[in-house]
Specification:
mainly beta, 8-stranded mixed sheet, 3-stranded antiparallel sheet, 2 helices
Amino acid sequence: MPKHTVFFAKSIITLLACVSCLCMAHGVEKDIDLTRLPLGDGRISDHPLQGSIWPCQTAGFGTRRSHGGEWIKSDGTFDFSNKPVTEGEIYWPSKIDIRLVDGKRRVTGNDLPKHATGKFPIAPGNAAYRYDTNPNSISAQEVLMELPGAPALAQASSCLPGGAIGMLLTGSLLFNALDANGEDAVAHEIQDNCQGHPQRSGAYHYHSLTTCQADQGSGHSLLIGYAFDGFGIFGRRGENGKLLSNADLDECHGHTHVISWDGKMVSMYHYHATWEYPYTLGCFKGSPQRLPLQQGNRRRPG
């Protein structure tokens, strides 16, 4: 086979992979305009507040230059569909195991996703480099958590750490929606086609539900992961398949109704992803566990 034919075939395969990922994201275009998502900048709070994030720490917020480009609009929106992504298609030896053991949900893994990632560090020749020079490399992490199998609501909600707040079923960690500058990470930070990237220690993570994790269908979304207080995180659709917004959810980005939980239909609290900031959790509704690498005191209102 001629070399130019091989190159053309590889280009088509790469293009189809990108289109497939975008199709997942654009599956709700009839319900939401991905070219004009509202920016979450400035929507942080020192207490539980609907549509905001309550971070445990704010040191360093507002001290760095924000990433951004033509996809950030002057009217307070951003064009998700036109945001640059880092190039590459790298597959990893993902390991994740989630099982109930003596009433505890034991989560073990290496934080490497089941899907392909972009190439990190972002290389100078990458078109995304002009916006974000992320120098970090993706590397395996040790994930070992024991979450309550039957989580309960805490007496009061609590703040979110700057690191991991949950684990998605893709095998990788979920962080809150803020970048290191305290701004909307989904809008500002350059990520790959699956909206993931590594931090300093190499932990690959998302700040929202990745479009590389299926959230399709017409009914209530399926479970997509677990928050570190043990409650489930579900996709963007609620009862009767309604695409959810902040107005449908409480200050921690969840609500209570009957869901499928460990093979049974039960009425319980759960979180949801949305296309609207803060995308997943705004605070913890239960009592959270922490990964060993996370620092910071846990704060409650009052």
